[in-house]
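(Structure overview)
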Amino acid sequence: MEKEFWLERWERNEIGFHQGDINPHLRRFWPEAAPAAGRVFVPLCGKSRDLLWLREQGRPVLGVELSVIAAQAFFGENGLTPAHQSRPPFESFEARGVEILCGDFFDLDAARLADVTAVYDRAALVALPPELRARYAAHLAAILPAGTRLLLITFDYDQKEMNGPPFAVPVAEVEALFGPHAAVRHLARFDALADNPRFRERGASRIEEHVFLITF
C-alpha cells in the first residue's frame, strides 16, 4: 500500500477498519502478554480507543500513525488537548501519558523505542501487503529492546474471496515472518465471521482471528 492510500482514507473518513470499542482479545490476553512496567508501543495506531485502555492499565503509551487527521481525532474525540512538538522526521502529539508520532513507521529507530517493553498490534501487520510484511517484522526486531513482548492479532480467510486490507495473514506466515527474529507462541483462534458482517458483505465465507504472543 502506498502512503497516499491511507492518507486518503482518513481524509475521506473511509475508516471501516476503526473499532469503536476496546478489542476483546486485548482485554483477555494483555495480562499474559505484558511485562509489569515500561512503555507500550502501538504501530499504525489510528485513533484506536485501545490506546486509552492501555494507558488505564498504568502504562505510558507510544503510537505511530501516518495520518495527522487520525492523531488529532484521537485526542479530540477523547476530550484531550495534546502538546504538539516537532521531532523530525515525526510530529509528536501527547496528552496524559499517550503520545502519537505522526510519520512513517519505517523511519522509527531504536532510540525512540528504548523504554518500550510491550507492543500491541491489531491493525498494523494485517494492513500491509505481502511485500511489506517481511520488512515490517524485520524492522520491529531491529528497533525493539531485547525481551519485548508483542501481542499480535491477525485475520485469516480466503484471499480470493475478498480483497485486503485487512489482508489474510495465516499462522504459517506469522511463524515465517517472526520466527527468525523471535519466539512465536500461538495463543488462540476464533471464528470471527459472525462478529464481522462487513466481511461477509465483501464476499468472505470464512474468517478467523488469531492471537499470538511474540517475544523478541
